[in-house]
Each structure stands twice: as C-alpha cells, then as structure tokens.
Write a structure and sequence with these properties.
The structure holds 2 protein chains of 2 kinds.
Chain A (H helix, E strand, L loop, with lengths): L1 H10 L6 H22 L3 E7 L5 H8 L12 E3 L8 E5 L7 H10 L5 E5 L25 E5 L6 H14 L3
Parallel strand pairs in A: 1-2, 1-3, 3-4, 4-5
Helix pairs in contact in A: 2-5
Chain B lengths: L7 E8 L3 E8 L5 E6 L4 E3 L8 H12 L2 E3 L49 E5 L11 E7 L2 E8 L7 H5 L4 H9 L6 H15 L6 H29 L3 H22 L17 H22 L3 H7 L7 H7 L3 H5 L12 H4 L13 H25 L13 E9 L2 E10 L2 E8 L1 H8 L12 H8 L4 H4 L1
Parallel strand pairs in B: 4-5
Antiparallel strand pairs in B: 1-2, 2-3, 6-7, 7-8, 9-10, 10-11
The chains are: A alpha/beta, B alpha+beta.
Chain lengths: ~170, ~475
C-alpha cells in the first residue's frame, strides 16, 4: 500500500467543478431550513433503470470517480428505496420493468421526488415506443424534474441535481 | 459431455409470409435454413445437444409462436408475468401500433433445487447498486450456492422490431443505443453489413479509425471492471484508481467523436484528429496499466478472494459456446480479431488464461488493455477522421461479426427495397449469461457479485 499512497500524493486532487461546491454551499445557506426539513442535510438517491442502454448508469457510476466525487456535495446513491428521497429514473419504462419501478416508487417514503434521467424516459431518444415500451414516465409517475441528454454527462447530472435542489426554494 | 464439437453461434426465425424459416449459424459453416409450416409452427429442438439453444429457442417461441419438439424448457423468455398470451410481435402481421394491456398475472416457474434445509434467495430485478435490472434466483444450502437461475429480459424494448421498415441509415442510431458499453462495436457491425450490401470496401484509414475507437471502447470497459471487481471484494482503492483511468479514456472518446460513448461516431463526425493528443494519452495509459498491475499483483488479500472463485470450466465454456473474456479466461482462444488479417497483420494475438476463475478474467482484462493500447498505436498512425458513409445497399441477407468489449457480437440483417425486413442481434452476453450458473456451485453467495462482475455481461444488449 505504500506505493499506492506514494502515487496518491503525487497525483494530488483530481476533483473538478469547484464552482458546484460554491453554488451548493450558497444554496445550502439559502435552503438551510428546507434541506434540514426534507433531506436531513443530505440528498439520498435511488437510481432505477427501467430499460436503458446502460450509458446513463455508467455516467451515474462515473459521478463517484475522483474527477466528480459526488458525495462531497452531500448527495449519495442508496441501495434501498426506503432510504431514498429521490428516484432517479432512466430508460424507456419497459412492459417488463413497469411493475417493479412502481413497486420501488411505492417503497420510497414521503416526501419523495421522481427525477427522470436521460432522453429515454421522455421517449426523446432514438429508442422508439414499441409494444414492449410503456413510457413516457410522466404517464405513470409524478415527474418533478428532468435531466436531458443521451446520456447526460456527469457534469450535466451534477448540474441537474443542483438545479433540482434550486427548485425546492420555491 | 457428449455434445457436438460444433459451436452454436445463433438460432433465430424469419417470417416469410406463407411460412417461417429458422436460421441456424454454426461456427465455420454457412447459415442453415429450416422451412417451417406456418399452420403447424413446429420445429425440432436443439436444446438436448446445445445448451445455449435454450434461450434462442425460447425467444423464437415468444417472438413467432413456433413450438419445439424435444425441448425441455418451454417457459416464456421475453414475455413476463403480465404479458397477454399468444402475442408474437416478430410475426409480419403483428400490428406495430398495438398497445399491449397488462394481462392477469401468470407466475413463472423457477428452476430450483429442493430438499431439506435448501432455501431460495431471489435477487432483483432492481439491484442494490447502480446496475441494470435482471433477476437471479438462487437455491442455497446455507451460504453455499447449489444452483442459480438467471432470468432476464426486463429491459426488453422490442429493438429488433423497431428496426424493421427502416433503412440502414435510419436504423443506425437505434443500433448504436442497444448497449452503451458496446455502441462502437454494434455500429461497426452495421457498417460491415452496409459494406457487404454495397460491394464496397472501407478504405484502410477509415477502417483504422473504426478499429481505434473499438479498442478505446474496450479499454474504457476493462478499466471500469478493473476497478469494480476489486471493489466487490472490498478493495475500494482499486476503484478510485481505475475509475479515474476509465474517465480519462472516456474523455478521449469524447475528444475523438464528440460523444463520451461514441454514439453515432462511426457514421458521423468530421473533426480532425490531433494525433499528438492520442499518442500522449496512449503512453500515459501504458504507464498507468503497468503501474496498476505491479501494484495490484502485490495485494495478497485481494487474490485470496479472486483465485479459484467462480470457475468456468473449459468443458462448460465449450459446451455453451462461450465467447469473449469468459472464454479466453478458460483456455479457449476465441476472438474475432484473431481471424481478421487487419488485426493479425498489425501484430495482434489474443490474450489467454487457463484457470477460468475471477483472477483469470481479471488478468485477461489487464493483458487486453495493453494489447489494445499497442493496436491503438498502430491505428493512430493510419487513421483519418473521415466517418463511414453508408452507400446504396443491394437487397439480400448479410451478417457480420465484431469483437466487442464483451466478446463476439453477431448481427444479421435482411434488406428488401433498401429497407430492413429482419434484424437479428446476438450480444456476446446472450450465450455467456446461459453459462453463468455453471460458475456458482461450490461458491458462497457472498461471492456472487464478485463472480458476476468479473464476467461483466450486458443486460441491455442481451434483452434488446
């Protein structure tokens, strides 16, 4: 492990987008009461793939790499919907996934928000509405916020999540 | 094992209007065609001889309503509990605008092991991490896995049907989005088909451009796995390191194609490539993989978890016709690039390991990053940024193989009046998933995530 730490110190900090820290800390101040009330200081996300190509998931995973380091913003992905504030939904909502997505949504305690991720849940991507597709998501879930892209880049997802938090101000 | 030595690559049906046809592709053979009477809709099953035929034939049953005599597994594959009965969407007379209503719930009979003290563990479709949906059904004796059934097709989007009636150019954006991890590979398969259908040959600089992007896609995928596999054994430092390298590779993809996954990159984009940037990146990545290897080889507690875990026996890999990393880690020299002079003339040799365990698949990925970087060096010299343009295709049936980051990808397309009348896509995962349960017996369920990640198969590409 010595070698690892040697390299670690040589590499320094890779994390980018410091402006998000500033925006968020500013936002935190403004939303202090609201965040404390809604999210107990941090935002917990349950990511659900309802029939994507896996690129949206790959970009969500990339959010945890050293370049983006999502958790520093107090936003983290959780394993159980019962621990979540937000369902982040990717994919076209296939016939085979719809009941499971609705199950997961039901398991998230109130208050809760559904954020759609990428063009698929809106059926804006080249993947078409076929017999096997039950999207758009808005027909089945109360969509509170949308992060477009095919797939949205990690920066776009970060921007989107901060943008979503900003809507809580109103 | 008593099965034939031939490798089953694909088996699928086509609707010919007055009859069906079942097409079967074995390795090193021309496509075999069976004529199926439309009214009787019956064929002889290959399941008893080829275990990988199980999903191919179950898919044909759902898609076309053809029954297989001698089949030991006739459960629906794509059509889950709430599908209406007797719906066969790949038939030509299926109304494409039909909106399917949920039918009453019909339960699915899982293949389980019985006996005193044996219990079942159901995992998924929604998993704990940020991963694709699929269901794994375990029969357990305490911690030990006795049996696992893999149940998929939760992501079934009807992609094959949605490509019908489109030109190759119109279908390209869909094909690029079948599986995000293999987008470049799928696009190249389509380009190969367009090439054959128009009797043209891609000039070397363009071919080198495609091949360079394909190796870059492989490097991204392997770096991602080199982080996630140790992470699933509780060694997060590897993930921190490898995920940063994967991110840098993705950024190179974005710099070369305008897209982090190379979506639509084979058929569009004209920016000039900055060869100095590519070469500098290649050298940095070489240094990174060599450092990573020397570092991680020295972590004995990690290899304790990976050595002898989740062994795919060579005989099973042969029986199922496994491809890609899984096959090569079990001593099978199987790689589409091996049979392609374009690669062999540039010094390509497939990576090979014998032990078939998680460790072997891990080592294959390290070796393949190095091999891909070597290839990228060559391709970078020859490549030009010009994308591939699809020429006017002739009608007919065409197929193509590409070695994606997951293994051999097979694409079959029929064209009539310039439009696709049948598109069949066989992801490498479609055969490899079927072999996955053979890796489980003798392992504890806590090692399942590690075993599964070491194979890193696609759900989206499999489910379509």
């Amino acid at each position: 492990m010595f070698r690892y730490w040697q390299r670690r110190f040589k590499t320094g900090v890779l994390t980018e987008n410091p402006q998000l820290d500033e925006r968020l800390s500013d936002l935190r101040k403004r939303l202090k009461k609201g965040i404390a009330k809604h999210f107990a200081g941090s935002l917990a996300i349950r990511m659900v793939d309802s029939g994507s190509c896996n690129a949206c998931e790959a970009e969500c995973n990339a959010l945890s790499n050293p370049y983006y380091d999502l958790e520093r913003l107090g936003v983290h992905f959780v394993a159980s919907p019962r621990h979540a504030d937000v369902m982040l939904l990717s994919g076209v909502l296939t016939m085979n996934m719809l009941p499971h997505v609705l199950d997961a949504w039901e398991q998230i305690p109130e208050p809760k928000w559904c954020i759609t991720l990428g063009d698929c849940p809106m059926l804006d991507s080249p993947i078409e509405r076929t017999f096997a597709v039950k999207g758009p998501a808005g027909e089945h879930l109360p969509v509170a916020y949308h992060i477009p892209g095919c797939p949205p880049s990690p920066e776009a997802i970060l921007e989107g999540l901060v943008g979503f938090l900003e809507t809580m101000e109103n | 094992m008593g099965t034939s030595k031939k490798r089953l690559i694909a088996r699928f049906a086509v609707d010919r209007g007055d009859r069906f046809e079942i097409l079967t592709r074995f390795e090193n053979e021309a496509i075999q065609s069976e004529r199926i009477d439309r009214e009787k809709a019956k064929a002889a099953s290959l399941m008893p001889r080829y275990p990988a035929a199980v999903w191919f034939e179950r898919k044909i049953m759902d898609d076309f309503g053809i029954r297989f005599e001698g089949a030991f597994d006739t459960r629906p594959l794509l059509h889950h509990e709430r599908w209406p009965e007797a719906i066969h969407p790949m038939r030509r007379d299926f109304d494409r605008d039909m909106v399917l209503e949920e039918a009453p719930f019909r339960s699915y009979r899982y293949a389980v092991v019985g006996g005193e003290g044996v219990f079942e563990v159901a995992v998924g479709p929604i998993h704990a991490g940020i991963i694709e949906p699929g269901h794994f059904h375990f029969s357990q004796a305490g911690e030990e896995m006795l049996h696992q059934e893999v149940r998929h097709f939760y992501k079934y989007r009807g992609i094959e049907k949605s490509c019908e009636g489109k030109s190759l150019t119109q279908a390209a954006p869909i094909v690029a989005r079948i599986s995000g991890n293999e987008s470049v590979a799928a696009q190249i398969a389509l380009a190969r088909i367009a090439e054959r259908a128009s009797d043209t040959q891609t000039p070397t600089p363009q071919r080198a451009r495609q091949a360079l992007l394909l190796e870059l896609e492989r490097i991204i995928h392997h770096w991602t796995d080199l982080g996630f596999i140790p992470n699933d054994a509780g060694f997060a430092a590897a993930l921190a390191y490898a995920s940063a390298r994967a991110e840098e590779a993705r950024r190179l993809m974005a710099a070369l194609t305008g897209h982090r996954f190379g979506f639509d990159a084979i058929f569009s984009g004209t920016e000039d490539w900055d060869k100095a940037t590519i070469n500098a990146w290649i050298e940095r990545n070489f240094e990174a993989i060599e450092w990573f290897e020397s570092w991680i080889t020295d972590i004995p507690s990690l290899w304790d978890r990976m050595d002898t875990t989740g062994i795919l026996k060579r005989a099973e890999a042969l029986r199922y016709g496994c491809v890609g990393v899984m096959a090569r880690a079990s001593g099978l020299e199987r790689d589409v690039r091996m049979n392609d002079p374009f690669y062999t003339e540039r010094g390509f040799a497939a990576a090979l390991e014998e032990s078939g365990d998680v460790a072997a698949r891990f080592k294959i990925r390290i070796a393949e990053i190095k091999a891909s970087l070597e290839l990228m060096r060559r391709f970078a010299e020859e490549a030009e940024a010009e994308p591939y343009r699809i020429a006017e295709p002739r009608d007919g049936a065409y197929d193509a193989f590409v070695e994606s980051s997951l293994g051999e990808l097979y694409l079959y397309v029929e064209l009539e009046a310039g439009k696709i009348t049948r598109l069949f896509f066989r992801d490498p995962s479609f055969v490899n998933w079927q072999a996955l349960p053979t890796l489980m017996p003798g392992n504890i369920i806590a090692d399942f995530p590690l075993i599964n990640k070491s194979c890193d198969l696609s759900y989206a590409g499999n489910d379509l």
